[in-house]
Write a structure and sequence with these properties.
The complex is a heterodimer of chains A (339) and B (154).
Chain A lengths: L1 E3 L3 E17 L1 H4 L9 E2 L10 H20 L8 E5 L6 H6 L7 E3 L6 H14 L5 E8 L1 H8 L15 E2 L2 E8 L6 E6 L4 E2 L8 H20 L8 E4 L3 H14 L8 E3 H5 L2 H4 L5 E2 L1 H17 L5 E5 L1 E3 L3 H5 L5 E4 L1 E5 L6
Parallel strand pairs in A: 2-3, 4-5, 4-6, 7-13, 11-12, 11-14
Antiparallel strand pairs in A: 1-2, 2-8, 2-9, 6-8, 9-17, 10-16, 14-17, 15-16
Chain B lengths: L6 H11 L5 H28 L4 H21 L3 H8 L1 H4 L2 H14 L5 H8 L5 H23 L6
Classes of the chains: A alpha/beta (339), B mainly alpha (154).
């Protein structure tokens, strides 16, 4: 691993993304990315008697599917890095308690998948592991229950509010393989723009996304056109527009190849999801489904994935605190140019 | 666009950028659905009256009926759709109150009947009860004070 600039790193080994898998819920199934998911659930419970159990089952089955697709034995997996939104990361720890793989439960709010990929790549690059699994999940119902109101409550949502994705994504990273590769990482700093409205997460996180993106370009010497596509995690329609504006003020035009996973996963008009999708499962399932599919088809050769997270809980927003954001950038390329 | 150099500038910019709720549409829907619920209450009241039930009992029957209908529709996953459409129109009448108690009861059933349903049932309605009852006590005290001085308020 080679550090460049303030906070970016080029990998010194090829970090292969051996396989990816994603399982999503019924609303995501009705969305525009339907064709790219490994499995879509018919209902939110998936045969369990609580949403928390359902979410655990989703991440468990997603990790199992990813390992099965990678064709390596689960006993050869050195670590799993996984996280979710529920208190104390119980979806991941309960879902993976029978996996028999050394486990790191991580929390980066909705940026968790980016954090997992970053840590997984560092672990392999530092010779601590040969194969690792990176996973993240979220569930609309369990998230609403924890962060907002009961589902059956007859209230209205703000136009800037987002819809938590029910779903999970998992990727197996390995020393050996034929790509695509994680080639560079820019772990993000915590950036607080002073936004206090929990119904406007996109605006709260856009500052962090801008900060990480600027650092990435400055550190690596790359510019937006280096990538076929740049994806943020869940800025939504509102946050996406804000990030485009913010980058423009810094002299970068990202309009042409930039999109947001939260914008892609739902059809705003048909599905009434307001500003778009959110949650750890949003960037995880869009990456493990749609984006990796595009790599397989050769449509993408260079992608910058930047999951974004709002680092708050329901107590801090009730106490009137502002919402700090974070974004971790991971460069994924079909070939390894720096090796 | 101008560069943003402070949190205040960012807040102003975000305000412009964030879409507002469709207030006119929301008000209109709240008006007619709320009116419809009240009309339904009035119909129940009139039916009771024609059956020879006295006024006070009829009011009670109206409340009970609306609470039942709202709770029933909540359980059927219908009330939240009405609420999303009508907003305050279905929230402000007693139907909203019933919904705010039944919905957490359903949500927290997975944590058991004591710590789940029992403890969490009033998470949404609790503030309304606390401040509603507190206000009525204050008004009651004021009423007694002024009434003993022979000033008739009502």
């Amino acid at each position: 691993m080679k550090k460049v600039g303030n906070q970016s790193y080029f990998m010194s080994k090829p970090i292969n993304i051996l396989s990816t898998a994603c399982i999503v819920g019924p609303k995501e199934k009705d969305g525009p990315l339907n064709a790219y998911f490994d499995q879509c659930l018919e209902d939110e419970f998936w045969g369990e008697n609580s949403w928390e159990k359902a979410e655990s089952k989703i991440i468990k089955e997603t990790v199992n599917t990813a390992i099965a697709k990678s064709k390596i034995a689960s006993s050869s997996i050195d670590f799993v890095f996984a996280g979710d939104l529920l208190n104390q990361c119980i979806s991941s720890s309960f879902g993976l308690r029978e996996s028999n793989i050394p486990f790191f439960g991580i929390f980066g709010a909705c940026s968790t998948f980016g954090e997992a990929l970053t840590l997984g790549s560092m672990t392999i690059d530092g010779d601590f592991a040969t194969n690792v699994v990176c996973a993240a999940s979220s569930h609309f119902c369990s998230a609403e229950k924890q962060f907002r109101f009961p589902l059956e409550l007859g209230n209205q949502r703000a136009p800037s509010s987002q819809w938590t994705v029910t779903g999970s994504g998992a990727a197996v990273l390995s020393k050996d393989g034929e790509g695509p590769y994680v080639t560079a990482i820019t772990p993000g700093k915590i950036v607080d723009m002073g936004i206090k409205d929990a119904n406007n997460m996109g605006a709260a996180m856009a500052g962090a996304a801008q900060d990480t993106l600027l650092c990435h370009f400055k550190d690596t010497g790359r510019n937006p056109s280096y990538y076929d596509a740049i994806f943020t995690g869940d800025l939504g329609h509102v946050g996406k527009d804000i990030l485009i504006d913010l980058m423009e003020t810094k002299g970068y035009n990202i309009k042409a190849n930039y999109n947001d996973c939260g914008v892609l996963i739902f059809d705003k008009e048909q599905q009434d999801t307001h500003s778009g999708g959110s949650g750890c499962g949003c960037s995880a399932s869009v990456f493990c489904g749609y984006i990796s599919h595009m790599f397989k088809e050769g449509k993408y050769k260079k992608v910058l994935l930047m999951p974004t997270g709002a680092l708050m809980n329901s107590t801090t927003s009730q106490q009137g605190e502002s919402i700090p954001g974070i974004a971790h950038a991971v460069a994924i390329e079909a070939t390894c140019p720096n090796l | 666009m101008k560069p943003i150099n402070s949190k205040e500038e960012y807040a102003t910019y975000v305000d412009q950028k964030t879409p507002n709720s469709p207030i006119l549409k929301n008000c209109f829907n709240a008006f007619w659905v709320g009116g419809l619920i009240c009309a339904l209450g009035q119909i129940i009241f009139e039916i009771c009256k024609t059956r020879g039930i006295d006024e006070t009992t009829s009011y009670t029957i109206v409340s009970i009926s609306l609470i039942f209908i709202s709770a029933f529709l909540t359980a059927l996953n219908i009330f939240n759709k009405i609420g999303k459409f009508a907003g305050a129109g279905s929230l402000v009448p007693i139907t909203g109150f019933a919904n705010s108690i039944v919905s957490p009861a359903m949500e927290y059933k997975s944590e058991g009947y004591v710590m789940g349903v029992g403890a969490k049932m009033f998470t949404v309605a609790g503030p309304v009860l606390v401040y509603g009852i507190s206000t009525s006590i204050i008004i009651g005290i004021l009423y007694i004070i002024f009434n003993t001085q022979s000033i008739t308020l009502i």
